[in-house]
Amino acid sequence: MLSRTEYLKLDKKIAPKSKEGQTLFLAFVVGGLICMIGQGVNDLFKLAIPSADEKLLGEITSTVMIFLGAALTGFGLYDRIGKFAGAGSIVPITGFANSVVSPAMEYRCEGVVFGVMCKMFVVAGPIIVSGVSSSIVVGLIYWIIGLLK
Amino acid sequence: MLAVYLRVFLVGGIVCLIGQLLINLTKMTSAKILVTFLLLGVVLEAVGVFDAIKEFARAGITIPITGFGSTLTKGAIEGAKKNGLPGALTGGMQAAAAGLSSAIFFGFLISLIFKARTKV
Protein backbone atom coordinates (compact mmCIF):
# COMPACT_ATOMS: atom_id res chain seq x y z
CA MET A 1 0.00 0.00 0.00
CA LEU A 2 1.30 3.44 -0.98
CA SER A 3 1.01 6.50 1.23
CA ARG A 4 -0.55 9.59 -0.26
CA THR A 5 2.74 11.44 -0.67
CA GLU A 6 4.35 8.42 -2.25
CA TYR A 7 1.45 8.11 -4.62
CA LEU A 8 1.63 11.77 -5.61
CA LYS A 9 5.36 11.48 -6.19
CA LEU A 10 4.83 8.44 -8.36
CA ASP A 11 1.97 10.13 -10.20
CA LYS A 12 4.09 13.18 -10.91
CA LYS A 13 6.89 11.00 -12.19
CA ILE A 14 4.76 8.93 -14.52
CA ALA A 15 1.93 11.15 -15.69
CA PRO A 16 2.12 14.67 -17.10
CA LYS A 17 5.63 15.84 -18.07
CA SER A 18 5.96 14.14 -21.46
CA LYS A 19 2.31 14.76 -22.21
CA GLU A 20 2.68 18.45 -21.44
CA GLY A 21 5.57 18.74 -23.87
CA GLN A 22 3.46 17.02 -26.47
CA THR A 23 0.52 19.40 -26.06
CA LEU A 24 2.87 22.37 -26.44
CA PHE A 25 4.42 20.90 -29.58
CA LEU A 26 1.05 20.10 -31.17
CA ALA A 27 -0.33 23.56 -30.33
CA PHE A 28 2.75 25.09 -31.94
CA VAL A 29 2.53 23.02 -35.13
CA VAL A 30 -1.23 23.23 -35.66
CA GLY A 31 -1.39 26.92 -34.76
CA GLY A 32 1.49 27.66 -37.10
CA LEU A 33 -0.15 25.69 -39.90
CA ILE A 34 -3.49 27.49 -39.52
CA CYS A 35 -1.67 30.84 -39.72
CA MET A 36 0.12 29.65 -42.84
CA ILE A 37 -3.21 28.72 -44.42
CA GLY A 38 -4.40 32.23 -43.57
CA GLN A 39 -1.35 33.73 -45.23
CA GLY A 40 -2.02 31.48 -48.25
CA VAL A 41 -5.62 32.68 -48.52
CA ASN A 42 -4.38 36.27 -48.27
CA ASP A 43 -1.81 35.76 -51.03
CA LEU A 44 -4.25 33.92 -53.31
CA PHE A 45 -6.75 36.77 -53.15
CA LYS A 46 -3.92 39.22 -53.73
CA LEU A 47 -3.30 37.45 -57.03
CA ALA A 48 -7.00 37.20 -57.85
CA ILE A 49 -7.79 40.85 -57.06
CA PRO A 50 -4.70 42.93 -57.87
CA SER A 51 -6.48 46.18 -57.03
CA ALA A 52 -7.30 45.12 -53.46
CA ASP A 53 -5.50 47.01 -50.69
CA GLU A 54 -4.20 45.41 -47.54
CA LYS A 55 -7.31 46.28 -45.53
CA LEU A 56 -9.65 44.59 -48.00
CA LEU A 57 -7.37 41.56 -48.21
CA GLY A 58 -7.39 41.29 -44.43
CA GLU A 59 -11.17 41.44 -44.40
CA ILE A 60 -11.47 38.77 -47.08
CA THR A 61 -8.95 36.56 -45.30
CA SER A 62 -10.72 36.72 -41.95
CA THR A 63 -14.08 36.09 -43.64
CA VAL A 64 -12.72 33.01 -45.44
CA MET A 65 -10.98 31.70 -42.32
CA ILE A 66 -14.13 32.20 -40.22
CA PHE A 67 -16.15 30.39 -42.85
CA LEU A 68 -13.65 27.51 -42.86
CA GLY A 69 -13.69 27.31 -39.07
CA ALA A 70 -17.49 27.35 -38.99
CA ALA A 71 -17.82 24.75 -41.76
CA LEU A 72 -15.26 22.40 -40.20
CA THR A 73 -17.13 22.73 -36.92
CA GLY A 74 -20.34 21.84 -38.73
CA PHE A 75 -18.79 18.67 -40.10
CA GLY A 76 -17.52 17.82 -36.63
CA LEU A 77 -13.90 17.97 -37.78
CA TYR A 78 -12.79 21.04 -35.87
CA ASP A 79 -13.50 19.49 -32.50
CA ARG A 80 -11.46 16.49 -33.55
CA ILE A 81 -8.54 18.77 -34.43
CA GLY A 82 -9.05 20.55 -31.13
CA LYS A 83 -8.78 17.27 -29.23
CA PHE A 84 -5.07 17.05 -29.93
CA ALA A 85 -4.19 20.61 -30.98
CA GLY A 86 -5.49 22.41 -27.88
CA ALA A 87 -4.66 26.11 -28.04
CA GLY A 88 -3.40 25.59 -31.60
CA SER A 89 -7.02 25.40 -32.66
CA ILE A 90 -8.43 27.85 -30.09
CA VAL A 91 -6.27 30.95 -30.53
CA PRO A 92 -6.55 31.41 -34.33
CA ILE A 93 -9.66 33.17 -35.68
CA THR A 94 -11.00 29.77 -36.80
CA GLY A 95 -11.26 28.96 -33.09
CA PHE A 96 -13.39 32.05 -32.63
CA ALA A 97 -15.71 30.75 -35.36
CA ASN A 98 -15.73 27.39 -33.62
CA SER A 99 -16.70 29.02 -30.34
CA VAL A 100 -19.70 30.61 -32.08
CA VAL A 101 -20.91 27.55 -34.00
CA SER A 102 -20.32 24.88 -31.36
CA PRO A 103 -22.84 26.08 -28.75
CA ALA A 104 -25.29 27.14 -31.48
CA MET A 105 -25.31 23.61 -32.85
CA GLU A 106 -25.47 22.07 -29.43
CA TYR A 107 -28.59 24.01 -28.47
CA ARG A 108 -30.25 23.59 -31.86
CA CYS A 109 -32.76 21.22 -30.27
CA GLU A 110 -34.11 24.09 -28.15
CA GLY A 111 -35.32 25.82 -31.29
CA VAL A 112 -33.97 28.37 -33.74
CA VAL A 113 -34.66 31.46 -31.65
CA PHE A 114 -34.03 30.26 -28.10
CA GLY A 115 -31.53 27.60 -29.05
CA VAL A 116 -29.39 28.79 -31.94
CA MET A 117 -29.78 32.58 -31.77
CA CYS A 118 -29.64 32.87 -27.99
CA LYS A 119 -26.86 30.42 -27.33
CA MET A 120 -24.63 31.43 -30.23
CA PHE A 121 -22.61 33.82 -28.11
CA VAL A 122 -22.46 31.89 -24.88
CA VAL A 123 -18.71 31.44 -25.37
CA ALA A 124 -17.92 34.17 -27.91
CA GLY A 125 -19.91 36.86 -26.10
CA PRO A 126 -17.14 37.78 -23.64
CA ILE A 127 -14.72 38.08 -26.56
CA ILE A 128 -16.89 40.58 -28.40
CA VAL A 129 -17.83 42.52 -25.27
CA SER A 130 -14.25 42.82 -24.03
CA GLY A 131 -12.86 43.54 -27.50
CA VAL A 132 -15.36 46.22 -28.44
CA SER A 133 -15.31 47.86 -25.00
CA SER A 134 -11.54 47.97 -24.69
CA SER A 135 -11.14 49.29 -28.23
CA ILE A 136 -13.60 52.09 -27.45
CA VAL A 137 -11.63 52.95 -24.31
CA VAL A 138 -8.46 53.18 -26.39
CA GLY A 139 -10.32 55.30 -28.96
CA LEU A 140 -11.51 57.63 -26.18
CA ILE A 141 -7.96 57.97 -24.84
CA TYR A 142 -6.71 58.90 -28.30
CA TRP A 143 -9.62 61.35 -28.65
CA ILE A 144 -8.71 63.06 -25.36
CA ILE A 145 -5.04 63.16 -26.30
CA GLY A 146 -6.10 64.77 -29.58
CA LEU A 147 -8.08 67.40 -27.68
CA LEU A 148 -5.15 68.25 -25.43
CA LYS A 149 -2.75 68.73 -28.29
CA MET B 1 8.21 34.08 -50.26
CA LEU B 2 9.24 30.94 -48.43
CA ALA B 3 10.84 33.03 -45.69
CA VAL B 4 7.53 34.85 -45.19
CA TYR B 5 5.67 31.58 -44.69
CA LEU B 6 8.34 30.35 -42.31
CA ARG B 7 7.96 33.49 -40.21
CA VAL B 8 4.17 33.14 -40.31
CA PHE B 9 4.49 29.55 -39.10
CA LEU B 10 6.98 30.36 -36.35
CA VAL B 11 5.22 33.38 -34.89
CA GLY B 12 1.74 31.88 -35.24
CA GLY B 13 3.02 28.69 -33.65
CA ILE B 14 4.66 30.53 -30.76
CA VAL B 15 1.48 32.52 -30.06
CA CYS B 16 -0.50 29.27 -29.87
CA LEU B 17 2.22 27.63 -27.79
CA ILE B 18 1.93 30.45 -25.24
CA GLY B 19 -1.81 29.83 -25.23
CA GLN B 20 -1.27 26.13 -24.57
CA LEU B 21 1.19 26.97 -21.81
CA LEU B 22 -1.50 29.13 -20.18
CA ILE B 23 -3.98 26.26 -20.45
CA ASN B 24 -1.52 23.76 -18.97
CA LEU B 25 -0.49 26.02 -16.12
CA THR B 26 -3.76 27.71 -15.19
CA LYS B 27 -6.50 25.44 -16.60
CA MET B 28 -8.05 28.47 -18.30
CA THR B 29 -11.13 27.82 -20.42
CA SER B 30 -11.04 28.55 -24.14
CA ALA B 31 -13.16 31.69 -23.71
CA LYS B 32 -10.65 33.12 -21.26
CA ILE B 33 -7.74 32.22 -23.54
CA LEU B 34 -9.42 34.00 -26.43
CA VAL B 35 -10.18 37.08 -24.31
CA THR B 36 -6.58 37.18 -23.05
CA PHE B 37 -5.09 37.13 -26.54
CA LEU B 38 -7.68 39.56 -27.84
CA LEU B 39 -6.74 42.04 -25.11
CA LEU B 40 -3.08 41.44 -25.91
CA GLY B 41 -3.84 42.51 -29.47
CA VAL B 42 -5.71 45.57 -28.19
CA VAL B 43 -2.77 46.61 -26.00
CA LEU B 44 -0.17 46.00 -28.70
CA GLU B 45 -2.19 48.11 -31.13
CA ALA B 46 -2.87 50.84 -28.56
CA VAL B 47 0.82 51.35 -27.81
CA GLY B 48 1.61 51.19 -31.50
CA VAL B 49 3.85 48.13 -31.81
CA PHE B 50 1.38 45.83 -33.54
CA ASP B 51 2.19 47.15 -37.01
CA ALA B 52 5.87 46.41 -36.53
CA ILE B 53 5.13 42.84 -35.47
CA LYS B 54 2.68 42.49 -38.36
CA GLU B 55 5.31 43.72 -40.80
CA PHE B 56 7.51 40.84 -39.69
CA ALA B 57 5.03 38.06 -38.93
CA ARG B 58 2.11 38.82 -41.30
CA ALA B 59 -0.64 36.23 -40.79
CA GLY B 60 1.31 34.79 -37.86
CA ILE B 61 -0.04 37.59 -35.68
CA THR B 62 -3.21 38.61 -37.59
CA ILE B 63 -4.81 35.15 -37.84
CA PRO B 64 -4.61 34.55 -34.08
CA ILE B 65 -7.36 36.45 -32.25
CA THR B 66 -4.77 39.15 -31.48
CA GLY B 67 -5.44 40.34 -35.04
CA PHE B 68 -9.11 40.85 -34.21
CA GLY B 69 -8.23 42.97 -31.19
CA SER B 70 -5.82 45.00 -33.26
CA THR B 71 -8.38 45.58 -36.03
CA LEU B 72 -10.96 46.81 -33.50
CA THR B 73 -8.50 49.12 -31.79
CA LYS B 74 -6.97 50.45 -34.98
CA GLY B 75 -10.46 51.32 -36.20
CA ALA B 76 -11.31 53.10 -32.95
CA ILE B 77 -8.05 55.10 -33.02
CA GLU B 78 -8.49 56.08 -36.64
CA GLY B 79 -12.10 56.98 -35.99
CA ALA B 80 -11.12 59.14 -33.02
CA LYS B 81 -8.53 60.98 -35.08
CA LYS B 82 -10.89 61.51 -37.99
CA ASN B 83 -14.31 62.13 -36.42
CA GLY B 84 -13.58 62.75 -32.74
CA LEU B 85 -15.89 61.24 -30.12
CA PRO B 86 -18.37 59.54 -32.47
CA GLY B 87 -15.45 58.09 -34.42
CA ALA B 88 -13.95 56.62 -31.26
CA LEU B 89 -17.25 54.87 -30.57
CA THR B 90 -18.00 53.58 -34.06
CA GLY B 91 -14.57 53.06 -35.59
CA GLY B 92 -13.81 49.73 -33.94
CA MET B 93 -16.96 47.92 -34.97
CA GLN B 94 -16.73 49.43 -38.45
CA ALA B 95 -13.23 48.09 -38.94
CA ALA B 96 -14.07 44.69 -37.50
CA ALA B 97 -17.37 44.41 -39.37
CA ALA B 98 -16.09 41.74 -41.76
CA GLY B 99 -15.09 39.38 -38.96
CA LEU B 100 -18.13 40.04 -36.79
CA SER B 101 -20.69 39.81 -39.58
CA SER B 102 -19.22 36.67 -41.06
CA ALA B 103 -19.00 35.01 -37.65
CA ILE B 104 -22.65 35.80 -36.97
CA PHE B 105 -23.93 34.93 -40.45
CA PHE B 106 -21.88 31.81 -41.15
CA GLY B 107 -22.30 30.68 -37.56
CA PHE B 108 -26.07 30.97 -37.87
CA LEU B 109 -26.15 29.34 -41.30
CA ILE B 110 -23.93 26.42 -40.35
CA SER B 111 -25.81 25.66 -37.15
CA LEU B 112 -29.07 25.60 -39.10
CA ILE B 113 -27.67 23.18 -41.66
CA PHE B 114 -25.80 20.78 -39.39
CA LYS B 115 -27.18 18.96 -36.42
CA ALA B 116 -25.09 18.50 -33.32
CA ARG B 117 -23.53 15.09 -33.22
CA THR B 118 -22.74 13.21 -30.09
CA LYS B 119 -19.28 14.15 -28.91
CA VAL B 120 -16.65 11.60 -29.85
Give an overview in words.
The complex is a heterodimer of chains A (149) and B (120). With 149 residues, chain A is mostly helical. Chain A has one domain. Helix content of chain A is 83%, strand content 0%. Chain A has 8 helices and no strands. Chain A is extended and about 70 Å long. The termini of chain A are far apart. In chain A, 44% of the residues are buried. In chain B, helix 2 packs across helix 5 and helix 5 crosses helix 6. The longest helix of chain B has 30 residues. The model of chain B has no long low-confidence stretch (mean pLDDT 94). Chains A and B meet through helix 2, helix 3, helix 4, helix 5 and helix 6 of A and helix 1, helix 2, helix 4, helix 5 and helix 6 of B.
Brief synopsis:
Chain A is mainly α and 149 residues long.
Summarize the helices and strands and which ones pair or pack.
The complex is a heterodimer of chains A (149) and B (120).
Chain A: H1 4-14, H2 16-48, H3 54-74, H4 77-85, H5 87-90, H6 93-106, H7 112-119, H8 125-148
Chain B: H1 2-26, H2 30-46, H3 50-57, H4 59-62, H5 66-95, H6 97-113
